[in-house]
Design goal:
The protein is mainly α and about 375 residues long. The chain has 15 helices and nine strands. The strands form four sheets. A three-stranded antiparallel β-sheet has the order 7-9-8. The longest helix has about 50 residues, at about 320-365. The chain starts with a helix and ends with a helix. This is SET domain-containing protein. Keywords: Methyltransferase, S-adenosyl-L-methionine, Transferase.
Length: about 375
Amino acid sequence: MYEDWKENILPLVYSAPESLDPSSFSVEEYFAARSLISSRSFMIDEHHGSGMVPLADLFNHKTGAEDVHFTSVSPNQEYEDDVDSENSDKSELSKFSDHDERASSSENSYIHSDSDHSSMSGEDTMILQMIMVREVKSGDEVFNTYGSLGNAALLHRYGFTEPNNPFDIVNVDLELVLKWGCSLFSSRYCRSRLSLWRKLDLSGCASEDSEYFEISSDGEPEMELLTLLYIMLLPDDTCHKLDMTICTSDKISRNIGMILSEKHDITWDTSSEISKELLLTEKVCGALLTLADIRESCYGLKSMDEDMEVLKGCCMKERKLYHSLVLRTSERRILEKLRTYATEGATRSQTLQNANQTSTRRKRLKKH
C-alpha cells in the first residue's frame, strides 16, 4: 500500500496547485481510505464494478445468522410486490420469499442488476432494497452477511474473527506436502509422482503464487490431497502401471479406480466416484498425521493450551491479539480433528485389509 501511494498519489501532490492541502493526501490518509474501501466496498454489478454504497456498507457481518439481505429490483417489480401485498394476507410471506431468492447469494452479498446499463441508458433504474429476513427487536444490532467465510478470510479481508465459525478451514500448502515427501524419498521421486498426479488433471487451490489444500472444519482433507498422498506412496510397479494407463478422459475414475479395485479385490464401476475410504490406507493416514504436525509447527513453540489461556485473559480492547488468537486456536482445533480423522481412517483401513486377507484365504481354500 505504501508503494502504491508513493507511485500514484505522491506525484499528483507534487504537481497539484498550491491551493491543494498536501496533508489531505498523506500516507496516513491514504491508508485510512484504503482500509475503508477494502473492508466496506463490494461488487455492485458488472457495469459499475466495486463501490461504496451508503447504508448497504453500514452493517456488520454475522455468519449464518444475518438479519437482512440486499437486492436490486426495478420500480415496476417493487410496485407489483406492493399490489400483491394488498391482495392477500399471505402475500407478505411470499414477498419475503421472493426477495430472498432475488437477494445476492455470492460471497460478499453482491448486488446484481438485470440490466448492466440501466442507469446509463435511461431504462428503468434499479432500486436498492434492504430485505429483512428475520425479526429484529427494537434496539438490537442489525446484521448482514459477507458470505460463508472462515476466520482466516474474515481476518484477512475485514480485520475480525468469529468464535466457533462453522466455515473455518486450514490450508496445507503444496510445499509442505513436498517437504514431507522429500523427508522420505528423493526430490526426483517426489517430482515424478507430482507430475503423475497432475496428469490426472488434479491440482490444489490456487492463490497468487501458492497452491494449497483445504482441511474442512470437521478435519476432513480434500480428495485432491488424499489422491496425491496415495500416489506418492504407491509401489514403483503399480505407479508405472498407472502412468501407462492414463489415456482416457475420465482419468480419475478409470485409472485410480482400476488400481483401487485390484488392491482391494472389488469390482469397479467406471461411472462410480472414488471413495475417500479406499484412499485412506495406513500409510496415507500416517502421512496426514505427519502433515498435521508440520502444519502446526508454523504456530511456534506455544502449545494449544497456552494459546487458550492467553485467549481467556485477552480482552476485546486488544483487538489484534484477540482475533489472531481466535484464528490460531480455531485452526489448531481443526488440525486436531485431522489427526482424529487420520487415526480412525487407519483403524478402518486395517479392518478392511484384514477382511480382504480373510476373503482371499477363503477363496484359495475353496479352489483346493
